[in-house]
Structures are given as structure tokens and as C-alpha cells.
Design a protein that fits this description.
Length: 281
């Protein structure tokens, strides 16, 4: 994502769960999510250095890794756990953290079986995340605390009006951005943007519950950021399935894959060789 020139990225719990062989039902632990956050931060830093050193980025200052918002799920416990999660992600280099109001163990926002905590508990959960952000900044300086993205899944369980009121309350509790999960129509998306202040995230999950709209239309509607949480995962799964079928049928896979040199470049061999040459006696 960093090498492709995007301005930000997202570490999705669905993706981390899938990479570990699990569905997004909170079977992965906080430590596993932290490990993924460290790997993502290292990868983004490497991408920024690579683009700056080898002429792939037009910039006048030092290389800067694109920011990543990490999925904090339900915070992995009570409000104190939420605060620990914020601090952990911040130390790992995450620029933001999403916190949501589902009952643990949570699940993907576009599947059945969801439930949410009561209104007051949801607000306190978000408040704890915001307090942790502020405490982190008190320790390390203004602007160092991660952005707090507050998500509600109550539209499906408690209705659209409840979800709007939760988003409004999350803003009052101090969150930086809200995320109304799984609106079912353009009308709901527009009303959310009109009634809730501040930055907003649109979740563009193909074949999910929400209409897929182009970025320009989302921006005009009032959204600040669009997430495509499963596009790359789904595309890679499809490519692997098609390649496996071709192999099973004894057919060539050239149309489905990169060249070996391109693959080596993507995983870092080119950068490694150039760095190794710098330090060869």
C-alpha cells in the first residue's frame, strides 16, 4: 500500500485473523494483534525509505511512512484494557486505533450474530480510548497520541437512530473520527454525514451491506476516509484459487503471476542488494 502511493492504510482485524487461519470472531489475542502492528509498522517504514532512496517518491524532506490505523476491536477487556491497547499500538507506531461497541467476542460487521454493549458502556469505552490518547500525549508530546476512530455496530441491532446517537455521543466523548458500520442505503450514509460532526470513515466492503461508491462521491457526501478492508485479501485468495486450479489442470500460470524479478523486488531483494552493496568492503 505504501509503495502504491496511498496516503494511509488500515490494519484490519479480519485480515490479521485470516492470516492466522481464523475468521474475524476475535479468536486472535491482543498480543497477536500487537505482533501484526509491529510488522506493519516495520514494513511501512521500509517502504518509505525505499521510495525516498530510489527515486520513487517526490518529496523534499525526510522519508515519512504513511500512517496506519490499527483495529482495536473491543479493546480486549474492560476500559483499562482499552487504554492499554491504545498505548500498545501507539508504541508500535500505529497512527490511529479503531474501537468499537460490540460485545466480546466481536465479529465482522457485515455478518450475522452481532450484539452491542449498552449505550453508556459504549461511550465509556470510547472515553477510555480518548483518555489514553491524551495521557500518551502528556507523556510524549502533543500530536503523538493515536487518532481514535470510534465505531458503532448498533444500526443492525438497535436501529439507525440509536447508531446516530452513539456516533454523536462518541464525538462528545472526544473521538477524532466516527465510523457507522454497515449502512444499508445511500440515504442512511447521507443522513449520517449530515447529523454527525467531524471526520467520518466509509467502509467499502465489496458484496457487503453498504453501497460501494467512488471516492469523489463519498467526499462530496461528507466522508473523510474510505477503507477497503478486504479487497486485497479477497483478490489474493481469488488469484491463488485460480492458480491452483491451473496447476491441477497442468496449465501454465504466467497470466496469473508476476515475473520472478518482480516478485523479488516486491518482497525486498532489490533493496537488500543495494543496502548490502553500500557496506561491502
Amino acid at each position: 500500500v505504501g509503495l502504491a502511493g496511498f496516503n494511509a492504510t488500515f490494519m484490519t482485524g479480519f485480515g490479521v485473523s485470516g492470516a492466522n487461519g481464523y475468521p474475524d470472531t476475535q479468536l486472535v489475542s491482543f498480543n497477536e494483534m500487537m505482533s501484526a502492528a509491529n510488522s506493519v509498522a516495520e514494513g511501512l517504514s521500509s517502504a518509505a525509505l525505499e521510495r525516498a532512496k530510489y527515486g520513487e517518491a517526490e518529496q523534499s524532506g525526510p522519508p515519512v511512512a504513511i500512517p496506519c490505523i490499527a483495529d482495536g476491536d473491543t479493546g480486549y477487556g474492560n476500559a483499562i484494557n482499552v487504554k492499554r491497547t491504545v498505548f500498545g499500538y501507539a508504541r508500535a507506531g500505529m497512527a490511529g486505533m479503531m474501537i468499537e461497541d460490540q460485545v466480546a467476542p466481536k465479529r465482522c460487521g457485515h455478518v450475522t450474530g452481532k450484539s452491542v454493549v449498552p449505550f453508556a458502556e459504549a461511550v465509556k469505552r470510547v472515553q477510555a480510548a480518548c483518555d489514553a490518547r491524551n495521557e500518551y500525549e502528556a507523556l510524549f508530546g502533543q500530536g503523538t497520541g493515536p487518532l481514535i476512530l470510534a465505531r458503532t455496530d448498533s444500526l443492525v441491532t438497535d436501529g439507525f437512530e440509536d447508531a446516530i446517537q452513539r456516533c454523536i455521543a462518541f464525538r462528545q466523548a472526544g473521538c477524532d473520527m466516527t465510523f457507522l458500520e454497515a449502512p444499508k442505503s445511500i440515504e442512511q450514509m447521507e443522513e449520517y454525514c449530515q447529523r454527525v460532526t467531524g471526520p467520518k470513515l466509509a467502509n467499502m466492503l465489496e458484496y457487503g451491506s453498504t453501497p460501494i461508491l467512488p471516492p469523489l462521491q463519498l467526499r462530496k457526501m461528507g466522508y473523510t476516509m474510505a477503507a477497503y478492508p478486504l479487497t486485497l485479501l479477497s483478490a489474493s485468495i481469488k488469484a491463488m484459487q485460480e492458480s491452483l486450479q491451473l496447476i491441477k489442470e497442468g496449465k501454465p500460470t504466467y497470466d496469473k503471476i508476476l515475473s520472478f524479478s518482480e516478485t523479488k523486488d516486491v518482497v525486498g531483494f532489490t533493496k537488500y542488494a543495494k543496502e548490502e552493496e553500500r557496506y561491502t568492503c
